[in-house]
Amino acid sequence: MEILHEIPGRVRVYYPDLKMTPNICRQINYSLLARQGITSVRTEPRISTVTVYYNQQLLTFDQVIRILLLFGLYDDGQLLSRDFWQQSASLRRAVQRSAVSGALLTASYVAHFLQRPSSMLDIFTTIFTGYTVLSHGDRKQGRIKHPDIITAFITSFALGPTKMTEVALTSWIVNVLELAQDYHQLNEHQHKMVTRAVI
C-alpha cells in the first residue's frame, strides 16, 4: 500500500497488488463505513486507489492508515478481510437490535414508573428482546450456548411467566456485555491482521 495524498481529514492510498473487482470495492466501502469516524469512502478500481474522509476528532491519521493496511493483506483480492468484514457487519446489526431493545425496555419501565403500564408495550418489548437475544451470535457455533440465551432460560424459569419484562431486561443486560466482548475480540483480530501486514 502506498500513500498518494494526505490532507487533514482525508487520505488517498494506492494498492499496486490488489485487483479491485466490484465485489472487493463493495467490501472496502462496507467495511470502512462501518468504522466510527469514517465519513466517506471513494474507490477507484481502474487505478486501484481508495480515498477516505474521516473525522479527526474520532480518528487519527495513523489509525486510518492501520485500518487501510488490512486491504493489502491478500494479493489476489479474493480473501479481502472477509471474516473481519462479515463479523463487523454482523456485530453492527446485533448492536442495532440491542439498541432498539434497550429503548423499548426503557419505555416499558418509564410507563410503569408513571403508573401508566401498557400490556401491549410489555409484550412487544419482551418479544423483540427475545429476538435480539436469540439472533445474536454465530449460527454454526450454536447460539443456544450464548450467555444471554442461557440467562433468558434460567431467569424465565426462576421468575415465572408474570415477570417476562424482568426476564427480558436481565437477558438484554447480558447481551450488551456480550456485544462489548465481541467488539473487543473483533478489534484484537483486526490488530493481529494489521501487525501481520506491517511485518
Give a topology summary.
Blueprint: E1 2-7, E2 10-14, H1 22-33, E3 38-44, E4 49-54, H2 61-69, H3 82-113, H4 119-134, H5 147-159, H6 164-198
Antiparallel strand pairs: 1-2, 2-4, 3-4
Helix pairs in contact: 3-4, 3-6, 4-6, 5-6
Note the total helix count. 6
User: Quaternary status of these chains?
Assistant: single chain
What distance lies between the first and last C-alpha atoms, to the nearest angstrom? 13 Å
General form: elongated
Residues in helices, as a percent range? 55-70%
The number of E-state strands comes to 4
The major pleated sheet works out as: 4 strands, antiparallel
Radius of gyration: 21 Å
Strand percentage: 5-15%
Structural class: alpha+beta
Element pattern in H and E: EEHEEHHHHH
Average pLDDT score: 80
Low-pLDDT segments, ≥5 res = 74-80, 195-199
Strand arrangement, largest sheet?
1-2-4-3
What labels would you give this structure?
single chain, 199 residues, alpha+beta, 4-stranded antiparallel sheet, 6 helices, elongated, disordered C terminus
What would you say about this model in short?
This protein has 199 residues and is of the alpha+beta class. The chain contains 6 helices and 4 strands. It has helices spanning 22-33, 61-69, 82-113, 119-134, 147-159, 164-198; strands spanning 2-7, 10-14, 38-44, 49-54.
